[in-house]
Amino acid sequence: MTYRPKSEFLGIMIQRGYLADCTDLQALDEALIQGPVTAYIGYDATAPSLHVGHLLNIMMLRWWQKTGNRPITLMGGGTTKVGDPSFRESERPLLSPAQIDANIAGMQRVFASYLSYGDGPTEATMVNNAEWLDDLRYLDFLRDIGRHFSVNRMLSFESVKSRLDREQSLSFLEFNYMILQAYDFTELYRRYGCRLQMGGSDQWGNIVNGIDLGRRVDDAELWGLTSPLLTTSDGRKMGKSQGGAVWLSAEILSPFEFWQFWRNSTDADVGRFLKLYTELPVEECDRLGALQGAEINAAKVILANAVTTLLHGADAAARAEATAREVFEQGGSGGDLEEARLPATAFADGTLTVQQALVQSGLTASGKEAKRLIAEGGLRLDNEPVTDPQQTLTPSQVGDGIKVSIGRKKHRMLRIG
């Protein structure tokens, strides 16, 4: 990159690895020097929580605020009713208004860990695009906004083109999504003076649409900035684990499991993750990421503690580290382990086989999976290996809880009821 920004924010974006592309880096840089500038990222309310895949862009908003600018978290109460078709193989399931509102409430609790909300010039604002999308007059909208969009150009965007090339259906409802997202930018500019939209690089086409619409209808100078779409060094999509999405809500994923996700990072990812997901100085991130052998494990603990502290607080991070040390290093049970529950009726016959316990507690999906796990030597109860799926358990053995270890990294406290 030949242009060297003068603003603190863009310097951080480049140095720490957040920047993929920008529509006009120099113009944005000059505006930031005069500052503050208002920027937004949009989040459709498709789930009751955000997950680790959202965390990079949340950190961008956090740095945006820390460098003296105003962030907007735009909740897609309106656009969720349509569903973003970008790079999806099929249409998203439609949610009810009550589901959407509940999801927004859950996501709002996550944002509160990273951003300071209020009325000041650099305080964050949460906005719901249902405010303007729910009451649109369709014919007026088509006449005033729809006429600025070329269907030919919309069909050329990779997010749409890839779907059509695979001969997969793209509904007219979904096709409207990019127009509605572009209109969001226009409304945020009119209502809040918002001049920058940020997002993942898969949103580039939608962002450019919004910039072009703002120029056409309001003669507004707007910008777009995207972050790279991350994968781990072993090729997995960032934010995915063997158990599915890594959620940012403590009600869905315990702080210990969240901490453990980061502690299990591959060696090659540590330095990069420290720069993207913590606020440690870049030089320290590089130093820690360059460690080798056993020393890199200490760096992974620093990474896990720093990321968990930002989301759940320092006490939760300390408890997670203590639990991990007890479970992995000392062979203890770990009081902060996530629980798995057996139904109260499980011991109606007095005993239960280990195979049945795994299935009834949801630790395995089937008896066949449980048998395979045991045959491969992957199951331990209170640190003792289990070799027979028909080994029995009694209520007194489970007692106040028995630690179940599946492989080396998955640990649960099995309880009754």
Helices and strands, with pairings:
Elements: H1 8-16, E1 21-22, H2 25-34, E2 38-44, H3 52-66, E3 70-76, H4 97-111, E4 125-128, H5 130-133, H6 138-144, H7 151-156, H8 158-165, H9 172-175, H10 177-192, E5 196-200, H11 204-218, E6 223-227, E7 240-241, E8 244-245, H12 255-263, H13 270-277, H14 282-289, H15 295-312, H16 314-329, E9 339-342, E10 352-353, H17 354-360, H18 367-375, E11 379-381, E12 384-385, E13 392-393, H19 395-398, E14 402-406, E15 410-416
Parallel strand pairs: 2-3, 2-5, 3-4, 5-6, 9-15
Antiparallel strand pairs: 1-6, 7-8, 10-13, 11-12, 11-14, 14-15
Write up what this structure looks like.
This protein is α/β, with parallel strands linked by helices. It folds into three domains: 8-227, HUPs (Rossmann fold); 254-329, Tyrosyl-Transfer RNA Synthetase (Orthogonal Bundle), CATH 1.10.240.10; 339-416, Roll (Structural Genomics Hypothetical 15.5 Kd Protein In mrcA-pckA Intergenic Region, Chain A), CATH 3.10.290.10. The chain is built from 19 helices and 15 strands. α13 packs parallel to α15 (295-312) and α15 packs antiparallel against α16.
Q: Can you give me a brief rundown of this structure?
A:
The chain has 417 residues and is of the alpha/beta class. It folds into 3 domains: 8-227, 3-Layer(aba) Sandwich (Rossmann fold); 254-329, Tyrosyl-Transfer RNA Synthetase (Orthogonal Bundle); 339-416, RNA-binding S4 domain (Structural Genomics Hypothetical 15.5 Kd Protein In mrcA-pckA Intergenic Region, Chain A). Helices cover 45% and strands 14% of the residues.
